[in-house]
Give the backbone structure.
Amino acid sequence: MAILLEDALAISWPDIITTISRDRLKLFATSTGATNSIYFDIDEARAAGYPDLPIPLSFFFSLGFEQPEPFKYLTNLDIDIRQLLHGEQSFQYHSMAFAGESITLRAAIVDCYSRKNGELEFLVKETEYFRGDELVAEARSVEVVQNMVTLQ
Amino acid sequence: MKVGMKLPPFSVERITNSTLAEFAVASGDHNPIHQDREVARSAGLDDVFAHGMLSMAYVASLLTNWTRQENITSLNVRFLAITPLNARPTCTGTVTALTDGVATVELLVTLEDGTRTISGTALVRVED
């Protein structure tokens, strides 16, 4: 099933406004085997000069899940989630963000293309992360739709 | 700091179903292909596999165990292969360029059987 570029580009999300708790970041640190205590111990974070637990480098991706139905756009494009693979992920960082801060996300699909005679399709999503008016970070994700996967 | 310098590697315990369940909650990614064996089988896989972003979190730890996070200006990765259950990834990094106070670090995540699951690059501000 070919994804139409215009359908992909028409996907839009409302801004996400989210605040991440210390406990959430502690859980993330535990679940990812983090060993640097500034990511799970508030006293260590403060001793390192930070106002609170830092949002780790890859956790910015998780901020995008802070919405009721993060996979709904796939249904709108007729993509089965089981066909999906994460292909690439990039971040640019302008400043750090911390537990307790309000972060606003603006995301959009910016490109969609196919390879191998349509066996693989690629969705490119860009996200900007703001604290107030300040651009804190930017992300670019490439999701791969594997059309050759047989689903049962 | 010199070109060719290697970062201290970062490795973790074996990835189990409970690792993936905990990561799903912590990361907010509840895609069932990482947690439900029947869902994975219905897509032709033997079993569930780890979230790519779990391995990217390991790469982040490799970097921030080595330098303060504010020094890292970009992080780009490509996911090369899926990470099966019971895998034990190891992250490595090598400084490959040093220009105007910015180090380029080439990153790899490798499994015990030699499979490369991630390749990537980080740009890191360094003091002269």
About this structure: Chain A touches chain B at residues 24, 27-28, 30-36, 39, 48, 54, 56-59, 61-62, 65-66, 70-71, 81-93, 95-96, 149-152 (CB under 8 Å). Chain A has a mean pLDDT of 94. The beta strands of chain A are 16-19, 84-93, 102-115, 120-131, 134-146.
